[in-house]
Write a structure and sequence with these properties.
- The protein is an alpha/beta fold.
- It folds into 2 domains: 170 residues, Rossmann fold (3-Layer(aba) Sandwich), CATH 3.40.50.1970; 198 residues, Dehydroquinate synthase-like, alpha domain.
- It is built from 14 helices and 9 strands.
- The strands form 2 sheets. It has a 6-stranded parallel β-sheet, sandwiched between helices. A 3-stranded mixed β-sheet has the order 5-8-7.
- Strand 7 and strand 8 form a beta hairpin.
- Bound molecules: fe (ii) ion (FE2).
- The site of fe (ii) ion (FE2) has 7 residues, from helix 6 and helix 10.
- The site of fe (ii) ion has 7 residues, from helix 6 and helix 10.
Length: 385
């Protein structure tokens, strides 16, 4: 018999063009009339934040903005945001952004109801109380933090990324409006899109995968194969943006319920050590980790190859599976994803990076038994290209 499953995602999810028009009604249903808006300065400068705050102002919902969230949000970001929340007597959070504002919002929301310091919550399920209500408005097709039970905060003192897996951080409402994703630069669209692909792929092959996560993950891989290149080539392509919004969303539903793998374990180290954007870190590692995992689940890689548009008819499983690796390399090249050599990565750092990666909470999900030496070798392979 299979074990039973406890499946998480937000109770309410708004997705599609115009979805932000529903935000005020959701806040009213939650009886939130004074909220902290957690966002970042780039989104504020682009006018994305204002699209939402104009709706709040028109509806008479009081808000204060905390926009100091860094690309890899820090403990200080969390503490400073919480101070604004408490000083202003806020009753809930509207988070606007990609992964960073969403992750910071989850940490702020959990500290408000649980107290203490965010470093106390590193790991799995450390909090007791549910977060304050969060309406999570996603602006990039990538991290899917708006629907997941995970968040990542950088401890700037220890220089590590703390990965938290905690159902109490789950948003009350997720919002995915592709119109908010228009006009994002090509490099950001490519990197965040490859993050979504990494979520889908790692969710599909992880040890924790099950029938619902498989269905979601494979559909996300297919949608990304169909639309990511178009969204990168023309950031105003609303059809491609809509497909990517769906892909990111459903990949998030998948991995939040079954886990990830060592692409994320290794990428977290590149993020904390060199401040490399999360999507870029995943993208440049993905084909090399996929090659490592190939022998553990060739049937699934054959399905991935097909979902990414490769013709696998008549091929044996091993040959079809290999086409998935080819497709991933071709995608990274076409999307001009940098290589590890283009970053501040130093081969002399791999002992430390690999030791930290093996302890990352995502490592347990990888389908093949992995050692510190394996991780070092994958870093070397990615560096050599
Ligand atoms: Fe990710």
């Amino acid at each position: 018999m299979e074990d039973y499953r406890r499946i998480y995602w937000p109770a309410i999810n708004l997705i599609g063009v115009g979805a932000i028009q529903g935000v005020v009604t959701e806040l009213q249903n939650l009886q939130l009339n004074n909220v902290l808006v957690v966002t970042d300065k780039v989104l504020r400068a682009m006018g994305v934040t204002q699209k939402v705050t104009d709706l709040l102002a028109a509806a008479g919902i009081a808000f204060n903005i905390y926009d100091d969230v860094k690309p890899n949000p820090t403990v200080a970001n969390v503490n400073n945001g919480l101070a604004v929340y408490q000083a202003q007597g806020c009753k809930g959070i509207v988070s606007i952004g990609g992964g960073s504002p969403q992750d910071a919002a989850k940490a702020i929301g959990l500290l408000q109801t649980n107290g203490g310091n965010i470093v106390d919550y590193e790991g799995i399920g450390k909090s007791i109380n549910k977060s304050v209500p969060i309406v999570a408005i996603n602006t990039t097709a990538g991290t899917a933090s708006e629907v997941t039970i995970n968040y990542v905060i950088t401890d700037e003192v220890r220089k590590i990324k703390m990965v938290m897996v905690d159902p109490n951080c789950l948003a009350s409402v997720s919002v995915n409006d592709p119109e908010l994703m228009l006009g994002k630069p090509a490099g950001l669209t490519a990197a965040t899109g490859m993050d979504a692909l990494t979520h889908a792929l790692e969710a599909f092959i992880t040890k924790g995968a099950f029938r619902l996560s498989d269905t979601l993950a494979l559909e996300a891989i297919k949608l990304i194969g169909e639309s990511l290149a178009d969204a990168v080539a023309d950031g105003s392509n609303l059809t491609a943006r809509t497909k990517m919004a769906w892909a990111s969303y459903i990949a998030g539903l998948a991995f939040s319920n079954c886990g990830l793998g060592i692409v994320h374990s290794m990428a977290h180290q590149l993020g904390s050590e060199y401040d490399l954007p999360h999507g870029v870190a995943n993208a440049l590692l993905l084909p090399y980790v996929a090659s490592f995992n190939l022998s553990a689940c060739p049937e699934k890689f054959a399905q991935i190859a097909s979902a990414l548009g490769k013709n696998t008819i008549g091929l044996n499983t091993a040959d079809a599976a290999q086409l998935a690796i080819d497709a991933l390399r071709e995608m990274a090249k076409a999307l001009q994803i940098p290589t590890l050599k283009d970053t501040r990565f130093q081969l002399s750092d791999i002992d430390k990076l690999a030791e930290q990666a093996i302890r990352d909470v995502c490592t347990g999900g990888t389908p093949r038994t992995v050692t510190v030496d394996d991780i070092k070798q994958i870093f070397i392979n990615a560096y050599q290209g």
